[in-house]
Amino acid sequence: MQREHRGSGLRLGAVRLRTDAYTQYAVTYRSDGLTISGIMNVPRGEGPFPALVLAHGYIDPDVYTTGRGLAREQDRLARAGYVVLHTDYRNHAGSDDDPDNDVNLRLGYTEDVIAAVLALRSAARPDIDDDRIGLLGRSMGGGVVYNTLVVAPGLVAAAVVFAPVSSRPEENIDRFQRPEGDPVVEEIEAAHGTPEENPEFWRQVSPVTYVDRVTEPLLIHHGTADDTCPLAWSRRTAAAFEAAGKDVELRTYAGEGHTFGPRWPNAMDATLAFFERHLR
């Protein structure tokens, strides 16, 4: 929150895919001194188009390939007339490495999402309406979206998250990393202390601490049968936004798990209607 974030140098590379509705390009952009890779879907037809930055969930960087994640959403949103920039994040695919990212609670991913928006805005492309940009994230990427909303209020027009992680990082560590014996946990606690040893650090690194800063409307989708990210996490985060007087809506889906199945089309219809209200 105290840093000045920079994003620029959006470059379109090779065409990866052509469909009847959009063309997909490999892209790179600059994020606070690092080069970040990703993909961008550009709709056919007359622009400028509103744009969305997509923040994907956790995929092991050792197996991750560029643009992997949110594939259904990438296609559906581009077909609905949005430029879709899916960031790979640092340490993924063709992006530069940041060796301190994990011990710093992966906050670099938030920097990369902020930079993606700034890169879209500074590209001055006739097919991008830089006044109409939103965010969409799922799972870990939902947490990245929470961070972005509190770190850079006013950056975008609206945000949507699917099955997001907790807005309290220590809960994510306890659920996903500690049970697996991830050695990074020991490094994190050596650098910052445990929540018991250094509660102020953990309070300050939690986006829910700063919901009063948020200026954008937020839509949260969560399945009642999600056994990866408990629905209770989203209920508590939504309650914090509501208590701060923010524009938040939590939609729950009976029987849906973490990845969404039969109700995914309904969730996307609601997502498109939400973006239509706030970005069109």
Features:
nine-stranded mixed β-sheet; 32% helix; 280 residues; alpha/beta; Rossmann fold; 26% strand; globular
Structure characterization notes:
This is Peptidase S9. It comes from Streptomyces curacoi. Keywords: Hydrolase. Belongs to the AB hydrolase superfamily. Residues 76-279 form the Peptidase S9 prolyl oligopeptidase catalytic domain. The protein has 280 residues and is α/β, with parallel strands linked by helices. It has a single domain (7-168, 206-279), classed as Alpha/Beta hydrolase fold, catalytic domain (Rossmann fold). It is 32% helix and 26% strand. It has eight helices and nine strands. It has helices at 71-79, 107-122, 140-151, 169-177, 183-192, 199-204, 231-243, 264-279; strands at 7-18, 22-31, 34-43, 49-55, 83-87, 128-138, 158-162, 218-223, 248-253. Strands 1-2-3-5-4-6-7-8-9 form a nine-stranded mixed sheet, sandwiched between helices. A hairpin with a 2-residue loop joins β2 (22-31) and β3. α2 (107-122) packs across α3 (140-151). The longest helix is centred in the middle third of the chain and has 16 residues, at 107-122. The radius of gyration is 18 Å and the shape is globular. 45% of the residues are buried.
